[in-house]
Amino acid sequence: MKVRAAPEPSLILWENLGYDMKYRCGRVCVTSLMAIVLLCFTIGLILYTKTVDDDIQAFSPQVECDPALVITV
Question: Does pLDDT of 48 surpass 80?
């Protein structure tokens, strides 16, 4: 990672730094809520696929192999 010099102060949009605490808190709340929703959706998807996998495993016949017949190379 290369260290770069800071930009000139004249290039910074200083008027954008004037957001109040209410606006910043609102943005943090919205992004946190979006992250929680995505996490819940992902957990739900994982649980659903696990349930489907369990149903498939229960439906398919279980086959037992004779350990003496196992071929190793």
Answer: yes
